[in-house]
Design a protein that fits this description.
Shape: globular
Number of strands: 0
Number of helices: 6
C-alpha cells in the first residue's frame, strides 16, 4: 500500500501522526519545522498540508487523536502508518524514545502487540 491509496481520513491521521512524531519530545522549533518540511518533500504525500490542516481542525486533544486512531481498522493502512513513523524515528540514525513511545501506543491500540 502507498500513501496515494489512502482514503482522506487515513491521510489526515497520517499527517497528524507525522507531526506528532516530530513534536514527540515536546518541542517545535526551527529544527522541527525544517524536518517537517523535509519530510513533506521526501514523502510521496502531495496533499500533506491540506491533510494536516484538517487534522488540526478536527483533533483538538489526545482523546480525539486516539478516537481517530481507533477508526483506522484496516491492517494494511495501520502497517503503512507504522512503517512511515518507524522510518521517521530513524532519520537521525537512532530511534528517538518519544517517537518510539507514539509507535508503541499505536501498536497497542491496533493490537500489534
Amino acid at each position: 500500500m502507498r500513501i496515494s491509496q489512502l482514503d482522506w481520513e487515513a491521510k489526515m491521521f497520517l499527517a497528524g501522526c507525522i507531526k506528532s512524531a516530530i513534536m514527540a519530545d515536546g518541542r517545535f522549533g526551527d529544527d522541527e519545522l525544517a524536518e517537517l518540511e523535509e519530510l513533506e518533500s521526501d514523502l510521496p504525500f502531495r496533499d500533506f498540508p491540506a491533510a494536516l490542516e484538517e487534522f488540526e481542525a478536527v483533533v483538538k486533544d489526545s482523546e480525539s487523536f486516539w478516537e481517530m486512531a481507533e477508526e483506522i481498522q484496516k491492517k494494511d493502512i495501520q502497517e503503512l502508518i507504522l512503517s512511515i513513523l518507524r522510518e521517521i524515528s530513524l532519520r537521525e540514525g537512532f530511534p528517538d524514545e518519544h517517537e518510539l513511545e507514539l509507535i508503541s501506543d499505536l501498536e497497542r491500540v491496533w493490537n500489534f502487540q
